[in-house]
Amino acid sequence: RALHSREGCFLAVKEIEINRATAREEELRLLTREISTLAQLKHNHIVRYWGTATPNQRYIHICLEFCSGGSLSSLLKDWGAQEVTVVRKFAIQILLGLRY
């Protein structure tokens, strides 16, 4: 987690070790493709991409919108099965993002 200095909001930071990622050309290609795809996605139901940073030669940081509620996976792990109305709301949001 990091703080965006200009916007004053929290970001989620995905840290990738460059040495490991570049060990294989295919992994580097997939990483580049992921960043390119994230940069193009702009939708209310898709986590926002804020940018990429290379704080040093060892790591690359992919900065994304911070979701304070956590992931759907952690919600299910912490709270267990949900009521149909809750599941319906999540399903609609997921489908809207996928439709985009």
UniProtKB/TrEMBL annotation:
InterPro entries: Kinase-like_dom_sf, Prot_kinase_dom. Keywords: ATP-binding, Kinase, Nucleotide-binding, Serine/threonine-protein kinase, Transferase. The keyword Nucleotide-binding applies. Residues 1-100 form the Protein kinase domain. One of its GO terms (molecular function) is ATP binding. This is Protein kinase domain-containing protein. It comes from Eutreptiella gymnastica.
